Amino acid sequence: MQQHAWIINHFAQGRLEGTELEWVERSVPDLQPGDVLIRTLMLTLDPSNLLWLSEEPDYLPQLEIGDVMRGLVLGRVEQSRHPGHKVGDLVFALLGWQQYAVVRGEALTPVEGAVSFHPHPDIPLEAYVSALGPTGWSAYVGMRLVGEVGEGDAVLVSGAAGATGLQACQIAKACGARVVGVAGGEKKCAMLQQELGIDGCIDYKATDDLSAAMARAFPDGIDLYFDNVGGPMLDAALENMALRGRIVISGSISQYQSHGDREKLYGVRNTFMLASKRLRMEGFLILDYLDRTGEFMPQLESWLLSGALRYRNTLVQGLENAQAALPRLFSGDHLGKLVIDCR
Amino acid sequence: MQQHAWIINHFAQGRLEGTELEWVERSVPDLQPGDVLIRTLMLTLDPSNLLWLSEEPDYLPQLEIGDVMRGLVLGRVEQSRHPGHKVGDLVFALLGWQQYAVVRGEALTPVEGAVSFHPHPDIPLEAYVSALGPTGWSAYVGMRLVGEVGEGDAVLVSGAAGATGLQACQIAKACGARVVGVAGGEKKCAMLQQELGIDGCIDYKATDDLSAAMARAFPDGIDLYFDNVGGPMLDAALENMALRGRIVISGSISQYQSHGDREKLYGVRNTFMLASKRLRMEGFLILDYLDRTGEFMPQLESWLLSGALRYRNTLVQGLENAQAALPRLFSGDHLGKLVIDCR
């Protein structure tokens, strides 16, 4: 059987050129005993894709020229020679930018970065690539387990109209916090406030003093800052943190295009405030929590069914359009989760 | 009764000029019912003195021109009109750079920033301004309560030959960690290793690549970084942290001379690593832990008596020499705790 895949042609140097990957045809290997064949239904585009495309060590093994591009796939088992996996089972895993993947059945575990799941009958599959997938899990883990959001907390979320930010805002609201997002443009701010009920929104494209805008939105300081952006946004938030506030580092998308080029990275000047304000700043990766999805999936599904949690996906049809879509993650011209629909 | 005091003449602008304070004679007020008269025995010089001398909001109320300079005093009750305090009682409090202070007896509580104590009969009073005073408490709280140092941890301490650093190194050793300090100069490094038994020392004055030096000292990464320094040292440590490492922000002495001048502050470029390495970075102030000294003083005294905890004080005789001694905190030409001896 033949399939198409995106393989690495050359490494990214900062800003994406759109030629880093090459669209190739290749054969799908035959299944050996213990193997499972998974078809890609949806491929999510994530800021970390840019890190994986760089020739710079990160938290996962370095990819090589000629490798299939790494990516998170919601896939369906099409053939199985492993007793633990049946045809039709659904799974999240880093199966890469390809139409089919053949993997060892025993590797489909949280420890290996894969989570099998059973969709709720009343919830569409699209919800599982955003609110109920790794994006929603990240928002939940960052907001609740790391950030310990509580009733009455004053919460700031950057990248609020982005995939993780959208979910983080709504989870904080569901936990009784007052939530202000930072997003780019009136349209995104209107969506956050009017459609999702977020308490306030700072349009960073319409302000030349982020710190002052935060000070107006948080006269008593920020109790919890959920950071998807890093860079100058993090600096401005540090200036506006309340005593004993918490900062959750979920991502630093503003810095990924400088990955590997230390001189271009933004320097955060206000880290000295960690002591004077007694702040805790903590990073996390959802990979560490994959074995705990059973704890929070029921909560997320229940919020979704009650309307407390909504999602926005930007669907791009066809795996062949994945490379062209990737830069949209960094230009901000999409809403919510950017997904390649391969169904 | 007359006394001498240092009052604020003008605010500091970055580097100290040595004219910010004025040495004045003034009378000691008569005691009212409930008042206590405390004589300054020893005044500690601390990096935060520079923050307090600046016209820039910090974690304590802003001082005004003409105010007595704020400072931490180990004092003795000389007269008392408060039933809770007897002549001869010893106390730590922010009584200021003056020979005597008259305070309300009920204000001498941890909540108000004061701790009364009874020295162990076998321990000299000098130990209580360093290893067994707020400096030692900071080291203990930062290392154990915030940093959660444990057996086998690979620990880095910056400003290791400074007052807090010295104690932090030894406390980590006493808890079974492997400890490498960063200090300026061969003499300090030799003292740390040979006299205090610290496992290694990076002489920052003899290296032009701090990060590489740390990588050599920590081939498996740093589990716990106790930071007294901030700035480029923090950036280099971030590069060398192990997965799930902890960074305790005790101070940022490298940045205090830029306090209030945002452009001069060093920008930390590697904060994005908090997520990829799942790091926790947390600041603290000892002021928040003054009501818990009863928990850890017995441990610190026991370590001191057993020889596990040693201290180094640099004593300067006479309160009149305090202003001239203050810049020594930032030039690094002292060892351990810089103390004005007023006895």
Structure description:
With 343 residues, the first copy, chain A, is α/β, with parallel strands linked by helices. Chain A folds into 2 domains: 2-130 and 312-341, Medium-chain alcohol dehydrogenases, catalytic domain (Quinone Oxidoreductase, Chain A, domain 1, Alpha-Beta Complex); 134-287, NAD(P)-binding Rossmann-like Domain (Rossmann fold, 3-Layer(aba) Sandwich), CATH 3.40.50. Helices cover 24% and strands 26% of the residues of chain A. Chain A is built from 10 helices and 15 strands. The first copy, chain A, has helices spanning 48-52, 134-146, 163-174, 186-195, 210-217, 232-239, 273-276, 293-306, 322-325, 328-331, and strands spanning 2-8, 21-27, 35-45, 72-80, 90-93, 100-104, 115-117, 154-157, 178-183, 200-203, 222-227, 241-249, 280-283, 313-317, 337-341. In chain A, the strands form 3 sheets. In chain A, strands 3, 4, 5, 6, 7, 14 and 15 form a 7-stranded mixed β-sheet that branches. The first copy, chain A, has a 6-stranded parallel β-sheet with strand order 10-9-8-11-12-13, sandwiched between helices. In chain A, strand 8, helix 3 and strand 9 (178-183) form a beta-alpha-beta unit. In chain A, helix 2 (134-146) packs across helix 3 (163-174) and helix 5 (210-217) packs across helix 6 (232-239). At the A-B interface, helix 7 and strand 13 of A face helix 7 and strand 13 of B.
